């Protein structure tokens, strides 16, 4: 059903949803096939790397080395991002689709 009415003051301006699935390592080799399937609706694409950033006021008694060790353990994650001219965005990770 197509919506043709435009509301002056919409209550919802953005909708985000996520589908989670088990971590699929083979997905990286299949991303090209996915891109070819959706390229008509999502012509713009990019590969990004997502990393965690920690900003904390830990006080004088905290050990900076412990925080740095934990930060090194967390590696970046690849995010394949596809954008449409209509403003839709599709983010594909090895364990989720948003």
Q: Tell me about the biggest sheet? A: 3 strands, antiparallel
Neighbour order of strands in the largest sheet: 2-3-4
Could you give the count of β-strands? 5
Strand content: 15-25%
Q: What's the mean pLDDT score?
A: 84
Produce a short descriptive summary.
The chain is of the alpha+beta class and about 100 residues long. Helices cover about 20% and strands about 20% of the residues. A hairpin with a 5-residue loop joins strand 3 and strand 4 (about 90).
Give an account of the 3D structure.
This protein has one domain (19-97). The chain has two helices and five strands; from the N terminus they run βαβαβββ. With 98 residues, the protein is α+β, with helices and mostly antiparallel strands. The mean pLDDT is 84. Helix content is 22%, strand content 22%. A hairpin with a 5-residue loop joins β3 and β4 (89-92).
Could you name the key traits of this structure?
98 residues, 2 helices, 3-stranded antiparallel beta sheet, flat, alpha+beta, two-stranded antiparallel sheet
Set down the secondary structure blueprint:
Layout: E1 19-20, H1 27-38, E2 44-50, H2 64-73, E3 77-83, E4 89-92, E5 96-97
